[in-house]
Amino acid sequence: MPASRLEFRILGPLSVRVDGSPVAFGGPKQRALLALLLLSANRIVSRDRLVAELFPEQSGNSADHALRNHVSRLRKVFAAVGSDEPRLAARAPGYLLRVEPGELDLERFEQLVSEGREALGAGRTEAAATLLRSAEQLWEGRPFADLEFEPFGRLEVERLEERRLAAVEERIDADLALGRQLALVPELETLAAEHPFREHFRA
After folding, report:
1. Residue of 120, 20, 30, 21 lying closest to 73 (CA atoms)
2. I need a labelling partner for 13 at 20 to 30 A (CA). Which of 3, 7, 146, 148 fits?
């Protein structure tokens, strides 16, 4: 029997899908824990950082106990969806979430943007526009829309939004180079209204 296919989506409300079907990953704190681990996928996130981000108002022992409980619950969810190997491992000084290539939408976005920039630099403008547009289409709304009020949320949302807008600007440059000025007018008007201090959309 083939292994289940996991998808992690953070370019919009946080969601996890198994073979295309959404999976519940608990309440806000548990989802926030998953989000923090996904932002550092395949890298160790220290226990101190997780405690500071998730339980800033709790005492040391209480916060550490709460973190261990949420980690345990996440592990049970991963086990229930049929993950062959442990996904969430303790690694000093914290935890590491293993994510396979192609499972995280942010990783796919960054790969498409990188390929689009390379194509643009090489003069393959049509390919660049297609790749950058494909990167944009991975977005399903404001990143972490359901977790924006967690302590870590606002900074991460702004950081991810900046990366999205940079990709949009580069795709617009490619479209302009392809002579699509008239087709871009409605989009540029909307973007200029939404981001009035971003000169690229007003040029």
Report:
1. 30
2. 3
pTM: 0.88
Nearest CA-CA partner of 25 in 68, 65, 62, 79: 79
For the segment 141-184, what is each residue's pLDDT rounded down to a tens digit? 988 888 877 878 788 888 999 999 999 999 999 999 999 999 99
- Residue 8 exposure: Cα atoms within 13 Å on the Cβ side: 24
The number of angstroms, rounded, from the C-alpha of 55 to the middle of its chain's C-alpha atoms is: 22
Domain with CATH 1.10.10.10 in the chain: 6-97
d(CA 70, CA 137): 32
Contact between residue 10 and residue 37 where contact means Cβ atoms under 8 Å apart: no
Token pair of 91, please?
């690694």
What's the CATH code, domain 105-201? Answer: 1.25.40.10
Helix (H, G, I), strand (E, B) or coil at 23: strand
Distances in Å between the Cα of 176 and the Cα atoms of 148, 165, 173, 188 are 34, 16, 5, 11
